[in-house]
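Table S2 (text version). Query chain:
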Amino acid sequence: SLDKSVIELSRQGKEGSIIDANLNLLQEAEQHLKTIATEKFDQAIKEGDLPQVERFFKIFPLLGLHEDGLSKFAEYLRSQIASKAKENLTLALGTDMNERRAAVM
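Corresponding structure-token output:
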């Protein structure tokens, strides 16, 4: 985030309109970057790509999106836990009760 007082001081000079235009361009670029990061993070979660999920989880605080990053990472963890639980349940239900390891399952 840019220091607002520095921007206000810069606007008082002759280059105020140039600074406003550059500031608008910078804000648009920031929004575009946040949109791209969000889309890529969502894609990594959907694909279960742990290295990419971790990468974007680390990027989100740098973009000022702490809460969104935590929320998306929690969504990823929830989906991984649900998937593993379903896999374990299917394995346990498919185990023959006469099998030696049945009590462990």
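Notes on Table S2: The two ends are 53 Å apart (CA to CA). The CA atoms of residues 45 and 98 lie 40 Å apart.
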